[in-house]
Amino acid sequence: MFARILRRIGLAGTDIAVLWYACRHADTPKFVKVASIAMLAYVVSPIDLIPDALPVLGWIDDAALLAFGMPALIRMLPRTALNDARIASARLRSRWSFGRK
Predict the structure, then answer these.
(1) Looking at the domain assignment, is residue 101 inside a domain?
(2) Which residues neighbour 19 within 8 Å (Cβ) at sequence distance 6 or greater?
(3) Residue 49 per-residue DSSP state
(4) Tell me: the pLDDT tens digits for 5-21?
(5) How many domains does the chain have?
(6) Cα(62)–Cα(97) distance, integer angstroms
(7) Does 60 reside within a domain?
(8) How does DSSP classify residue 47?
(9) Which structural domain range is residue 53 located in?
(10) Is 72 helix (H, G, I), strand (E, B) or coil?
């Protein structure tokens, strides 16, 4: 179970990079760009539905938003923007691999 959670965290990092590069692509709809910025603003904002001061409950709403929001936004991307963003994301990950395979 712990390995599965770590794999999901790794995929979340990949999804973040894909969304970053997709938002910079010209073919990406404005709605996806605005929704990505809004999601990022909510996650880093100190104003939450459940305050982050509560040790575990405060992070659950942020994690749920990322877990359901990122894949939904990625599904809304046009195929050309998604392919270009995945290639750019893979290039970034290979630069930061530090010899790992």
Answers:
(1) no
(2) 36, 70, 73, 74, 85
(3) S
(4) 667 667 777 888 899 99
(5) 1
(6) 27
(7) yes
(8) -
(9) 2-95
(10) helix
* H-helix segments, 1-101: 2-23, 30-44, 57-75, 79-95
pLDDT at residue 100 in the model:
53
pLDDT band per the 50, 70, 90 thresholds, residue 99: low
Q: Give yes or no for a contact between 4 and 80, defined as CB atoms under 8 angstroms apart.
A: no
In a domain, residue 100? The reply is no
Q: Which of 3, 4, 32 is nearest to 18 (CA)?
A: 32
Distances (CA, A) of 89 to 54, 57, 85: 34, 31, 6
pLDDT in tens, 31-88: 999 999 999 888 888 777 777 677 777 778 888 888 889 999 999 999 999 999 999 9
The pTM for the full model equals 0.76
- 83 in a domain, yes or no? yes
